[in-house]
Amino acid sequence: NPVYVKVTKDVLDSAFINILIRDYGVGLSPERFDNVFRNMGDSTKDDSDDYIGAFGLGKFTSLAISDRVQLTSFHEGKKYDYLMYKNGTGINIDLINTSETNEPNGFVVEVKLPYSQLINVQNAIKNQLSFFETVYYENEINPTHAASFKECKITHYESFSINSNVNCLSILLGKCVYPLNFDNMNLSHDEKAFFRNMSDSKVAMR
């Protein structure tokens, strides 16, 4: 299923940007949401080796860059809006609203960041997400960046993949992305050219 990533300028305060990430999975019922988000170590992926994660830590990573995160679950015709936020004693999650919806099942994470973080956000999106053909990226602030994301060149091999983008050459092992730092690899000029030519050989379809 696709994952949709959107970057916009905050409508109430132009000094901030909003990042929205939406998947089209099964969504979470209130009961499942409470089990997953209110219990450290619980995860929707702990029964399979086909996914990133399984330790239940990914659900809190957005709090590493923001003190407040909006969470929305679409599940079986219902929309559940939550606010997750940090205070001096820990992490709080409040159910803000429940309503009927025609939206398909899935989950949304929305984070507000200072506008000064836009470049860092764009670099992270391109370097980390451009391997995955099911990620669809829209950037209302910088449409050119979203267009270049679609043009990232990827070559898939039997046990790894290589991606050539504007910022660095990266390699995908499993489902984790690692930048290739030629300065630390003691490669000759011809060897560096070989890797870059490998990356240019195929274009990923989005």
Task: Itemize the secondary structure elements and their pairings.
Layout: E1 3-9, E2 16-23, H1 30-37, E3 68-75, E4 78-87, E5 90-100, E6 106-114, H2 118-129, E7 135-139, H3 143-150, E8 153-156, E9 161-164, E10 169-173, E11 176-180, H4 189-199
Parallel strand pairs: 1-7
Antiparallel strand pairs: 1-2, 2-6, 3-4, 3-6, 4-5, 8-9, 9-10, 10-11
Q: Which terms would index this structure?
A:
about 210 residues; alpha+beta; seven-stranded mixed sheet; four-stranded antiparallel sheet
End-to-end Cα distance, whole Å, is 13 Å
Query: Which parts are unreliable, with pLDDT below 50 for 5 consecutive residues or more?
Result: 201-206
Overall 3D form? globular
Portion of residues within helices: 10-25%
**Number of E-type strands:** 11
Question: What do the pLDDT scores average to?
Answer: 83
Helical region count? 4
Strand content: 35-45%
Strand count, sense and barrel status of the largest sheet are: 7 strands, mixed
Mind telling me the C-alpha Rg?
Answer: 19 Å
- Structural class call reads alpha+beta
Strands of the widest sheet, in order across it, are 5-4-3-6-2-1-7
Order of helices and strands: EEHEEEEHEHEEEEH
